[in-house]
Amino acid sequence: MQDWPDGYGKRVLETVDSTNAEAARIADDLAGPEWILALEQTAGRGRRGRAWVNPAGNFAATLVLHPTETPDVVALRSFVTSLALYDAFATVTGRPQGLSLKWPNDVLLNGGKVAGILLESVGMARDIRHIGIGIGVNLKQAPVPDEVEAGALRPVSLLSETGVDVTPEEFLDVLAPAYAHHEAQFRIYGFAPIRELWLARAARLGEVITARSMREEVTGTFETVDEAGSLVLSTAKGRAVIAAADIFF
Fold first, then answer.
1. CA-based angle 8:13:19, to the nearest 5?
2. Tell me, which fold does domain 9-200 have in CATH?
3. pLDDT of the residue at 149
């Protein structure tokens, strides 16, 4: 078992509406970063307010941080978190095979979605008081197809894809030190090494994908992720730089 990282708090709740909501309630009273793990989450949320289905035995947690950077830099922690999840999965399974990272904030296992990340900040303009990094992992069960968005990747679970059975508490004890390692690298060296590691694990890099936002849909070859964390596609109309979208394969 890896050691719990210095300076990070941990609280495990039997049940809560949402770990991100709990993070917002307690953030102002925290002296440092804090992990909040819920064994039952009754009102979990995904991106754009979508419901996050969380069957018993799955992982639902939020890391509360008090960042000092500007919002654009704070948002890059989705990449930091993705790398930590990748490492945690590799540790508990003993192998990285089958794992990949889907821009901007999903982890794939054997081509299916096994984990998602949701960053939420509280603050005004450039003065972010805290950020909650919400993480959902299908450890034991995956949602059935009619519980996910049409056209989305099939949901999978760690147990069904690998046979590895871990509890939420066990997974957190692996994830927390992995996150602390990448967070330290991010603070010391900036986004460049995080970006390089992420691209080496990126799903569908060099392949044709579709980026769909509220305003438009762009299809092109996944060229890279730039220094600001934006997706870069090579399209028939030229190079497209996309800051936020859902990706479809």
1. 75
2. BirA Bifunctional Protein; domain 2 (3.30.930)
3. 67
